[in-house]
Every structure is written in structure tokens, then in C-alpha cells.
Amino acid sequence: MGQQKNDRKPRQPKKITPRYLDNVAAYYLGRYASSSANLKRILMRRAHKSCAHHGMALEEAEAMIDDLVARYRQAGFLDDENYANLLARSLRDKGKSKRQILQKMYEKGVEDHLAEQALQAADRAAENGQDNGGDRDAELIAAWHLARRRKLGPFRPAEQRSEYWRKDLGSFARAGFSYDIARGILEQEDVPEDIECGL
Length: 199
Description:
The chain has helices at 18-31, 36-54, 58-75, 80-93, 98-107, 112-127, 138-150, 165-174, 179-186, 193-198. It is mostly helical. The chain starts with 17 loop residues before the first helix and ends with a helix.
């Protein structure tokens, strides 16, 4: 049997107008949190395709996008500081290392100084949390979250720990955690009580 021919024509990109950009931005922000730079990047991707197809100057589309982003910031729909704080907290809670968090924030268009501030705030919240008694380092807490999620070290059955020690060490390394933190967790017989309560 031969392949069926697909007669559907590819969708043509819509022409860039302020209204079209508004619709795309509103739809995107209704589904995802975003930084100003990330939203601009999303809209510029559309603009590149549209301008190439319709023969419109990319600079004209970029001016519309810059205007929209400025309006959204002024109206409070875009708040880079708040976005950075939420992202840093969420990634720390998922067991992400400092290196991974800063890389993700860079990818999402968060300015360096906001990324650093947000990570420091997330770390203070983790370190001062009632669940861990306020005496644990945020990077260590995040590493324990990773260990629990991936069932590494003390979360494995005791008979498997030595067999998987190197593999577990590699998991911590790929996640951006230091050797000392990884080894410290992998050498634990059991999960410390204050960590277990906070996980």
C-alpha cells in the first residue's frame, strides 16, 4: 500500500499587528509565568516567520513587541522580580542545585542580579524553614530533595547502596552538586530526622 498523500497546505503565519501580538502574549501568559525577556523572545520567534512571509520589516515588528512588553510590565502582567523569586523557589523545592537554577534563569531571560537575589531569597527561606530547624544549608536541602526524588543513597534498599554508589554519585554530579555534598548524603545510613520531616 502506498503512502497517503497529505493535501493539507502548511498554515501561513499571520501578519504581525498589535492586536495579534496582544492575543499571543495573553494566551501565553495565561498558561505560563514569564520574564519580560522570555516573552519578547517568544513573540520575536513569531515575528521572524511572519515578517519573512509577509515582507514586513523585522524592526517594525520588534518595535510593536517592545511596546507591548513595556505596557504589560507597567500593567503588572510582567514582573521579573516576582517571576525570578517564584522560579528560584520552585527549582530549589525540586532539588535543583545553584548551578542548575542560575542556568535555567538565564535561559528564561532573568537578569543576573535578579537571579542572584531570587536564589539568595529562596535559600534563606529554605534554611530558615521550620521543617529543618534552620541549621541546614539550602544546597544540602536541595540535594536531599534530589536524593528522595531519584531514590539515591539512603533512599535505596540497604543491600543495593554499595552497588549503586558510583551511579548515585554521578547523578549528584550531573545535577550540579559538589562531591562533598553527594558523598555526605551517600554515606548516611538513614535520612536525618529533620530532613525527613522537611521532605
